Amino acid sequence: MNLSILILVPLITAVAVLLTRTRQQVRWVSLIGAAIQIILSLLLFVYYRNEVAAGNTAQMLFQQNYEWFPALHIGFHLGVDGISVALIMLTAFVVIAGILVSWNIEKMTKEFYFLLLLLSVGAYGFFMSLDLFMLFFFLEIAVIPKYLLIGIWGSGNKEYSANKLALMLMGGSALVLVGLLGLYFTNPERTFDLLKLSTTHIPHNIQMICFPLLFIGFGVFSGLFPFHTWVPDGHSSAPTAGSMFLAGISMKLGGYGCLRVAVYLLPEGAKEYANLIIVLSVIGILYGAFVTMMQKDLKYINAYSSVSHCGFVLLGIGMLTKTAITGAVIQMVSHGLMTALFFAVIGMIYQRTHTRMIDEMGGLLKKLPFIITVLFIVGFCSLGLPGLSGFVAEMTIFMGSWQHPDMLHRIVTILACMSIVVTAVYILRAISKVAMGPMKATYSHLKDAAWNEKLAAVILLFGIIAIGVAPFWLNDLVRPGAEIIMQKITGG
Amino acid sequence: MLNNTYLMLIPLLPLAGFVLLGLFGRKYFKNSSGIIGTILLLASALLAIYTAYQYFFQVGKVNGFYQKIIPFQYTWLQFSEGVSINMGALIDPISVMMLVVITFVSLMVHIYSLGYMKGEERFSTYYSFLGLFTFSMLGLVMSSNIFQIYIFWELVGISSFLLIGFYYEKPSAVAACKKAFIVTRFADLGFLIGILILSFYSGTLDFNTLIERLTSPDSSQFQAAIASSFLGMSALTWGMVLVFMGGAGKSAMLPLHIWLPDAMEGPTPVSALIHAATMVVAGVYLVARLFPVFALSAPEALTLVAYVGAITALFAAVIACTQTDIKRVLAFSTISQIGYMMFALGVAGYGGEAGLGFTASMFHLFTHAMFKALLFLGAGSVIHFIHSNEMKDMGGLRKYLPVTHITFLVACLAISGIPPFAGFFSKEEILFAASQHNQAVYWIGLITSGLTAFYMFRLYFSIFWNKAPSTLERARGEAGEGGFVMILPLILLAIGAAFAGFIPFGNFVTSDGKSFEPVSHWQFSVLPVALGLIGIFIAWRMYKKENNLPDKISASFGGFYKAAYNKFYFDELYLFITKKIVFNLIGRPAAWFDRNVVNGLVNATGNTTEKVSTKIKGIQSGKVQQYGLYFLVATITMAVLFIYWWK
User: Which of B244, B204, B249 has its CA nearest to residue B225?
Assistant: First the structure.
């Protein structure tokens, strides 16, 4: 399969959107583009499985390598393994759902859809890049539109949030850039190629300097404690689709970067800093959960809970076992789908009630059975109910973490396990206030979900349930990739 | 051979009901949902009975031992070599027995609800939730893998949450469903860590392999698990204690019992199914499932099971004597009876006659399912008739609800252990097993048995005898017992409650799979039965007719009565912990810290940068004269420095 198509399709769609005239055309063009994306991502999955089943054991499949800037050894190098395929599918699912829930956006529709599509270009490119310079390039493409999305279409204190988000993510990118340049200049071949770098031995002292730069840099994207404060403000001010992209995809860029670049290329650094990582991420998990417990705004609730859930991604990575890393990737996919759906539902509720404060709502189940049922399911996914994706991811991480018999890892794992109780508390608190109890009289005229909202929810639910009920396909997809990373760690 | 398709259909039929009614019930099956759910469950129940027949009488026994058969198993999630979650079925005497109990009681509840829930707005949702619960519970008992049981464990938890909160507009129901889920979730945390410990040492999640490895003293896994210790207990014991914590939460053992009385906010048939007969005994089932490990490798943990069970049995019985809401009396009675099953396991040994406690516990689980489901459904009929849960609104109902009256009496006699009703046989076996192993537990059990008879007949006399309240006159014209669908389950369960005791349980369910004939000791039975009769007599004196004896007696107990009436203030204690400690001492400071310290630092960084740049931005003014001045000053300074330093 030609991987460039996955970058070209959203890019062409974005350009096509600019050429359209009416709002109607804008959204249908975007929707068709997104539908092609989802079909391509599923095809990629099928082709990938077929290749692997046919005995292709190469680390990266479907590689394409063109020279881009030969003087500096920068190439246009694409390739995927199971981890990338999983995250590409996630992106396609979130993109189409995001386009569907933004169906009735009134202000500057064309520009809005253009930016959304541009973001997806960045995400696909990032997940497929095997050249670090290109990877950085796509990372930036995925950041800048968010500034505009929040600044223009946002709500509340949007200028502040947009500035904060852009500055913090830029700060993270700056660290990443320094780390990448460090790798580039200390390596005798002067290459940015990920696969070449992975076979050369990087000296210990370089690893010790570059690893924290890269890990913290990408960690900022993933809401690493204590660099997480852009998450709540950014999400709460962003428009619905913006929050969905932000939490569903952007936070995964960070996790993927930590894993693919920092840990994979710098295994010695990873081992040295692993204890620090797991301590920070478990603080993120529990602290995020406790802070969520006190929130009153639905978007803040989901934003802080994202900090907590993304803590699991970093925890899994920091545990440095095959099972835990697999779990971290499953958690990325699971959290991406779940949180996108959660924000979508929050958007739907807000559109109808004009409030996001849980204390001001009540008894919505009566009037909005579809939306609230989805809210229940997504809440259950968040609290780790079996049959939905969150459970699979968390349990895989716990099982992988428990493989370390020393006291620190044990304590960290037990603390992380404790979050299942706190999560249950905050999810049930939020859901019960919104959905249950006596209904407000003013809500008697509310209408349940429209077709576009239903379709968006069903698409994301499909992913959540497909992972939750039959996790083996995702596990089989991700595991070999995790194994290669582990070989590097244990062998290096 | 067992038929795999049939076995799979037993849980899948209720699941199909859940999916079908959940997705399309509201639109297409508004009125037929109940019938659809009931038919699916009937099919499932027939298959379960067929399976039980096949297992117990045809294929189960090989060389005198009932086998643990795994007819099918699929890898669901692979963690590492040998460690994976497998979805499969483990067919052995206890799982087969549970299949029959669950499908039978669930079928009764399905039928009963046709009448009880008629006209309910969310009728089809109700049946779809019942299907989900039945599926999860069946999956739980069939589990062949310890993680599989955890998965279904969580699923029954969520079904229980959904059904307790069925009347979601009632704030008390909302509070109750949250409480039930969170308290059991807390217990499940222990269960989860227990699973992690056990799987780490045994290198497997499969029940049979795990039990085999952790009970044979020669295996390297067993030795590793015994060798490593933490705070004076071996890792294996820790694992078992934590797993038991999960079981204690689901089975409402002290001090994790607080959710069960509140769970009575759910519809009454749900209380009969979930909070009396099936889900709450999951903890007992879990201990029974891992019984060889408890008995052979972690005796300390088993002793803990015995004491927790015994203390809970007595404690809940005392509270039951003081409650006035009839469903709460039954709830505490359930807690107390599950305590019986727990301590019966706790006093059992592995294999042969020593395993009497195991057989007795499972026997009591079986008979209890019959009579307690009957009691709840009977209470449902009463509530349906009176529209109140309070004892003071009842009295003299035997004239209006004759079938309910008779069947309720049968259930009360059964639970009080009066021969020849079912509870007599199972309770005698439990007490006998206890007397053989642990005198303290035996005496606690004996006292509880007297109390049980007292509070059950207090309930019985207050509802069906005593003086009818004045409000009853209005209800007289209405149809009494809700028609055939509400009477049939009462009669069928009453037959079970009356005669289930004659099943020779020792032939079928034993700790090691080998049948034995429990020896009967009629002399031994004299004391418990006498205590039961005394309890009934006191209740008769106090509650048969209206008088001032109850008030006098409760006054003579003074503070103790008040404490028991307030359930020994456990709710207040938990409220204090959650509100004052978790919310105010952890949550609030964390939220404050995040908004002010972490966020404050970020803002401070931003503001400082901005201020500094505002201050220095004048330097880049774009005015050529100014730059010329800078140039001149710099040149002179450098020239001066140059001249001085050159020397």
Answer: B204
Considering only residues 281 to 300 of chain A, which have any Cβ-Cβ distance to chain B shorter than 8 Å? 287, 290-291, 293-295
Instruction: List the single residue in B with minimal CA-CA distance to A296.
Output: B591
Return all residues near B524 (Cβ < 8 A) that are at least 6 apart.
B428, B431, B432, B435
Q: How far is CA B111 from CA A492, B161, B485, in A?
A: 65, 22, 6
Distance CA A435, CA A358 (A): 9
Cβ–Cβ contacts within 10 Å for residue B360, how many?
A: 30
Which chain B residues touch A365 with a CB distance below 8 Å? Answer: 168
Q: Is A307 on the interface with B (CB under 8 A)?
A: no
For B181, name the nearest residue in chain A, comparing CA atoms only: A424
User: In the Cβ-directed half-sphere of A69, how many Cα atoms lie within 13 Å?
Assistant: 10
CB atoms near residue B142 (< 10 Å): 24
| Ranges of each domain in chain A | 4-490
Residue among A396, A424, A470 whose CB faces B185 most closely: A424
Sign, CA dihedral B348-B351-B354-B358, equals positive
pLDDT tens for each residue of B492-523:
999 999 888 888 888 888 888 888 877 767 77
Average pLDDT, rounded, for chain B:
87
Q: At what angle do helices B282-289 and B326-346 cross, to 10 degrees?
A: 10
Report CA-CA distances (Å) from A246 to A152, A427, B93, B242: 15, 21, 53, 39
SS3 call for A65: strand
How many Cβ atoms are within 10 Å of A204's Cβ, its own excluded? Answer: 12
**Regarding beta strands B73-80 and B83-88, do their DSSP bridges make them parallel or antiparallel, or are they unpaired?**
antiparallel
How is residue A73 written in tokens?
Answer: 């050894």
Pick the closest to residue B454 from B340, B553, B571 (CA basis): B553
Contact indicator for A355, A112 with CB cutoff of 8 Å: no
Nearest to A385 among B76, B158, B200 (CB): B158
Q: pTM, whole model, 2 decimals?
A: 0.92
Contact residues, A window 372-401, toward B, CB-based 8 Å cutoff: 380, 383-387, 391-392, 395-396, 398-400
Which residues on A lie below 8 Å from B579 (Cβ)? Answer: none
Q: Write b or e for each residue in B270-290: b if 16 or more Cβ atoms lie within 10 A of its Cβ, otherwise e.
A: bbbbbbbbbbbbbbbbbbbbb
The residue whose two tokens read 């509270």 is B319
H or E element at residue B132: helix B123-142
- Contact status of A405 with chain B (Cβ, < 8 Å): yes
Residues 6+ apart with CB under 8 A from B565: B319, B322, B323
In 3D space, the residue among A175, A198, A181 whose CA is nearest the CA of residue A73 turns out to be: A181
**Residues forming a β-bridge with A61:** A80
Task: Give, rounded to a whole angstrom, the gap between the first and last alpha carbons of chain A.
Answer: 32
DSSP structural state of residue B469: P
Nearest to B389 by CA among B473, B522, B267: B267
Q: Give the chain A residue whose CA is nearest to the CA of B79.
A: A323
Which residue in chain A has the smallest CA separation from B588? Answer: A294
CA within 13 Å, CB half, B516: 18
pLDDT tens digits for A257-298? 999 999 999 999 999 999 999 999 999 999 999 999 888 899
Single-letter amino acid, residue B485: V
A 441-470 residues inside an 8 A Cβ radius of B: 470
In one-letter notation, the amino acid at residue B491 is I
Give SS3 for A355.
coil
What was the pLDDT predicted at B549?
A: 76
- Which three-class secondary structure state does DSSP give residue B278? coil
Residue A164 is given by DSSP the state H
pLDDT computed for residue A362 by the predictor: 83
CA distance B347 to B358: 8
Who's near A362: CB < 8 A, 6+ residues apart? A433, A434, A436, A437, A438, A439, A440
Under DSSP, the state recorded for B32 is: T
For residue B152, what is the enclosing H or E element? Answer: helix B146-164
